[in-house]
Amino acid sequence: MKMAFRTFSNLIAPIIFILCLTTNIVGYGTEYKYDFEPDSTANIDDELGEFKEFDANAEFESTDTTTWSDKSLRSESTCCNAQIEENTLFTSSFWWILGILGATVVAGFLVRNPTTRKFRIPFLLASIVFLGFYRGSCPCVISSFANTVLLFAGVEFHWISIVWFLSLIPITYLFGRVFCGWICHLGALQELLYHPGRLSVFTSIKAVRIMKVLQYLFFIVLVIQLLVQQKIFWCSIDPFLSIFQMMLAYNFEILSAVLVGLLLLTSLVSYRPFCRAVCPVGLVLGWIEKIPGASVLGMKGGCISCTQCSKACNAKAITRKENMSILNNEECIMCGECIDACPKNSIGFFRLSKRNPSKVVCSATLRDVNIPPSHTL
After folding, report:
1. I need a surface site. Which of 51, 291, 310, 333 has the fewest CB within 10 A?
2. Other beta carbons within 10 Å of 162
3. Is residue 319 part of a domain?
């Protein structure tokens, strides 16, 4: 299954890259279709309605008029595929989000069984196809997080706009970060592009630390921007929108092209670089793994210091220090690769406690001197 996934990535990755580089040129020569019949009396201002100032809830709310303008072009008001019909309680966006959350719960059970863990690759492929290209990366969990921040700033919002992110908090507490490792189309695209062994510099412990610092910096900058401007600027330059919708951001074409190129190139040589160095949702969900009772990975005993777990962990949630493997559940995306790689079946699922903390070590030396295999560093 992994070989098939890698073969598929070898074929599709160059196509995605070429499409993203040429999409701005192609877009201007394309006739765009309407999802709804446009008003024949609408003037040119109505047809260019999508170029209005971005609304913090534009991803989840409809326009005030009954005439729908062309929603194919990327602009500051994009995330248009998740629009909510006016005066409608449960919309298509709601059912999509509900389905995503349901799939996340299912993945939480599947990862705990050695047979069903093999379904992770089909889950990731389905995520790319349906949440990525079919839905155009809308709705997006990052904009759901942003709307949650805007909630505390007193900005009006539609309740569906925060359901996704807030629901992931209890799901992560119960099952771990299975959304990141199994469902998220943003992470799935990066994993599709990743080719291990190209540049080892991105896999070093120093690189892991630098990426974590960058993630915190981006989180702080994003929150400040949201609180000060009280609108979601991220959707205007989101490189995933550009890739999945095959259209560079309107008014930000150069910046959008740079971000797309940077994302694609770094994803080739580093495992999920956006997830580990930028994504605010992954950062917050990692914090959930520090709450007592949260689902974490730990050691059942029997470690022989074979290093297979650290080699299998592309996310670098498991790193090596001298003769020890250090497992940091805050970075773990519950892919299950380390569990399958362990020849002694020493890694298992636990609830966070003093004996099974968020950060643990494993080594044959510790086991030999009867020190509990799971302890705080």
Report:
1. 291
2. 21
3. yes
